[in-house]
Design brief:
Layout: H1 6-18, H2 21-76, H3 87-97, E1 101-108, E2 113-118, E3 126-130, E4 138-145, E5 149-153, E6 160-161, H4 168-176, E7 180-181, E8 185-186, E9 193-202, E10 208-217, H5 219-227, E11 235-240, E12 245-248, E13 255-257, E14 262-264, H6 273-278, E15 285-291, E16 294-305, E17 309-318, H7 319-323, H8 327-367, H9 372-375, H10 385-431, H11 441-458, E18 462-469, H12 472-479, H13 481-495, E19 504-509, E20 512-518, H14 522-538, E21 548-554, H15 563-579, E22 585-586
Parallel strand pairs: 21-22
Antiparallel strand pairs: 1-2, 1-10, 2-3, 3-4, 4-5, 4-6, 7-9, 8-9, 9-10, 11-12, 11-17, 13-14, 15-16, 16-17, 18-20, 18-21, 19-20
Length: 587
């Protein structure tokens, strides 16, 4: 059988298809119209996004403006912090300028607190709050007096102990050492979310003098989205980067309160299936989204707020809005499209009849698991010379590969076993402290993250203990680092003793160690730590007394359980142990 060059079989159909070029152009014009329609939908989305973007920035601007003004004032004139009462007039006047402002406050390093508060729902109702007027660290409400600042006490308001230095707005600002955003949470007793900023005030020596803060209710943003005149079945939302909702055009609640907890509404848990689908991709993009056979144009865009904070604007409009522009034009293109596809299909069937069968044989042989499928191909395979050449080349390659694979398999097995041994050794090295044999910082992070996940997902409570050797620097200075290392090794041996049953034992750094007890009663932990402390003291190095101080914290006693919050609370307890004379346990 005479071989036919493949190029002739390719050229001939395309010559025929060239006759249909005019009809094809008509088809491409339909695509152009589709792109135009999509552009119209995108322009509509961006117009809505621009309105929301401007509204959010204008709405939040006073939050940043006031805190910057107060930071500058207190930094330049720190003496005004000696007597907070006159500042009540300042805070009240600032709050009057911005109805959305709910709190403007200052908390000094010695625990005094003053705030102007405004009802987040019933705007214009201003009062003052202070924790120093009658009793130190005792919060009371006062009417505003334009002369004295603090007027008469509001007898209907509750009186309670209040130390601002342990509140998130204060600790967050000191942690950041700069302006910090508060976590968005519902206002107590009000159906609205709130957000705030706080910033530390330092003296010339870098010592903390105070923290000033501002806060506002976000109900106006939610009302604004609900007031937008959108096309039918369109959705708009503002959310945090993790999908927690801030405002939405829908009627669903933004948070749910139970007697034991408050839960923020999130896109992925929304009652609305469209919003749930949108939660799967919160990256900046314009894309198409299909929900129950309904197509949407989905647009997500970030709002860059001051101080490294980002919110997201999400807009979804039904594709029917912009695709309706094609309805009239589509009817006239159906007949042309049908003819074009029929012609292409007929010519394609002719090509498939002539070259399809041998190509299918090659395809099945090439995709078969055994090289013998290629080696057993019939010769000649086709009347097309290029296909025959390809078949012979594949058979030659199969023969060569068969020989190579025969020798390569054993080498791969040997190399795999060697690499596995090296990986196991490397993993153990990276997670273990060389001196003590305990988990190092990296190993602790992995183990503690797992314990925190179990706490959140399985309600598996745990006790976190941080401890260090008392006067360890003095041991190194007086007896040398070799003795110091012996002390560390002795303490490590004591801490990891199975008699005390800690689930995690790690060297946190220097002379600091960490123990984690999972699903153990707090009193049992304290008893175990007492025995640990006594055992470590008895396990002296070279007759050198070794005492230790401990700080304990139970995960369920913390509002927000993260690695940072657990360590921070335990450090505070350890610091109290040190201040109490060392060789003690603070719970």
């Amino acid at each position: 059988m005479k071989a036919v060059p493949l190029r002739w079989l390719i050229v001939t159909p395309f010559v025929v298809l060239a006759l249909l070029a005019g009809a094809a152009m008509y088809f491409f014009s339909t695509i152009t119209m589709s792109n135009i329609a999509t552009t119209v939908g995108t322009q509509y989305i961006k117009e809505v996004e621009g309105r929301i973007y401007d509204r959010v920035n204008n709405f939040l601007e006073p939050l940043n403006t006031i805190i910057n003004i107060n930071q500058a004032r207190f930094s330049q004139q720190p003496e005004v912090l000696n007597d907070l009462t006159p500042l009540a007039v300042r805070f009240y006047e600032q709050a009057r300028l911005y109805p959305q402002m709910t709190f403007i406050s200052v908390a000094t390093a010695d625990g005094r607190y003053l705030a102007s508060s405004q009802d987040p729902i019933n705007r214009g109702k201003h009062n003052m709050a202070a924790n120093y007027a009658n009793e130190p660290l005792t919060m009371e409400g006062f009417y505003y007096d334009p002369l004295r600042g603090l007027g008469e006490k509001i007898t209907t308001d509750p009186t309670f102990g209040y130390d601002p230095r342990i509140r998130p707005f204060y600790t967050d600002a000191l942690t950041e050492k700069d302006t910090a955003w508060s976590t968005i949470t519902p206002y107590y007793g009000y159906p609205t979310l709130g957000v705030g900023l706080s910033v530390p005030i330092y003296d010339q020596n870098g010592e903390v003098l105070a923290v000033t803060a501002t806060s506002m209710a976000l109900v106006e943003l939610d009302n604004f989205l609900k007031s937008l005149e959108l096309i039918d079945d369109a959705y708009v939302f503002i959310a945090e980067e993790d999908g927690a909702l801030i405002a939405t055009s829908q009627t669903e609640a933004l948070f749910e309160k139970t007697p034991t907890a408050t839960t923020r509404a999130r896109l992925e848990y929304s009652d609305n299936e469209v919003l749930r689908s949108a939660s799967q991709d919160l990256t900046t993009s314009t894309q198409e989204l299909t929900v129950n056979d309904d197509d949407y144009l989905y647009y997500i865009h970030p709002i860059a707020l001051p101080h490294n904070k980002t919110w997201l604007i999400g807009i979804l409009i039904p594709a029917a809005h912009h695709e309706s522009l094609l309805a009239a034009y589509t009817k006239s293109t159906i007949s042309v499209t049908l003819v074009l596809f029929l012609c292409i299909g007929f010519i394609g069937s002719l090509i498939a009849h002539y070259i399809g069968k041998p190509i299918q044989q090659l395809n099945r042989a090439a995709n078969h698991e055994k090289l013998s499928s290629i080696q057993n191909l019939p010769q000649p395979l086709s009347s097309i010379s290029e296909i025959n050449s390809l078949s012979q080349g594949l058979i030659s390659m199969a023969d060569t590969l068969s020989d190579i694979l025969h020798h390569l398999e054993q080498k791969v097995m040997d190399r795999t076993e060697h690499l596995q041994d090296e990986n196991d050794t490397l993993l153990e090295t990276t997670l273990t402290d060389e001196l003590t044999g305990l988990l190092n910082r990296r190993g602790l992070n992995a183990a503690l993250n797992s314990a925190i996940d179990d706490y959140h997902n399985k309600a598996q409570d745990f006790v976190f203990v941080i401890c260090d050797i008392d006067h360890f620097k003095a041991i190194n200075d007086e007896y040398g680092h070799t003795t110091g290392d012996e002390a560390l090794a002795a303490v490590s041996h004591c801490l990891k003793s199975t008699r005390f049953g800690a689930d995690i034992v790690a060297r946190y750094g220097g002379d600091e160690f960490v123990l984690v007890f999972v699903n153990v009663d707090a009193n049992d932990v304290i008893e175990k730590i007492q025995r640990v402390r006594q055992e470590c003291e008895r396990a002296a190095t070279m007759a050198l007394p070794v005492t230790m101080s401990f700080g304990l914290v139970k995960a369920s006693s913390i509002d927000t359980v993260t690695m940072e919050s657990i360590i921070q609370h335990a450090d505070i307890k350890l610091y109290q142990s040190k201040n109490s004379g060392r060789n003690t346990i603070t719970w």
